[in-house]
């Protein structure tokens, strides 16, 4: 899971950069289901199953949040925040300390 954590961390570090415009985000309802699915897997403490999904999901949501308009853009920002939260228990399970 160490390599996957590196990919997650890289995506988290890109939060304030321009999006990758080569990415075409899936529709908002599909992204909502993807985030919901990641949360369900995380709540079941199946972090090794969730970790591989997060980097691509982050990149897709980041692009959507920066390029979409209207309520889809608002939804994308909310989903990105929710998806970012998924990394927290993954990091803790991998032994990363909680920041204070």
SSE order, as H and E?
HHHHH
- N-to-C CA distance: 24 Å
Q: Globular, elongated, flat, extended or rod-shaped: what is the shape?
A: globular
Largest sheet: none
Helix content: over 70%
Count of helices?
5
| Poorly predicted regions | none
Task: Return the domain count.
Answer: 1
Number of beta-strand segments = 0
Rg, Cα atoms, Å = 13 Å
Word description of this protein:
This protein is mostly helical. It has one domain (2-18, 26-93). 70% of the residues lie in helices and 0% in strands. The protein has helices at residues 2-13, 28-43, 47-50, 54-67, 70-93. The two termini are 24 Å apart.
Summarize this entry quickly.
This protein has 100 residues and is an all-alpha fold. 70% of the residues lie in helices and 0% in strands.
Overview features:
100 residues; mainly alpha
Topology of helices and strands:
Blueprint: H1 2-13, H2 28-43, H3 47-50, H4 54-67, H5 70-93
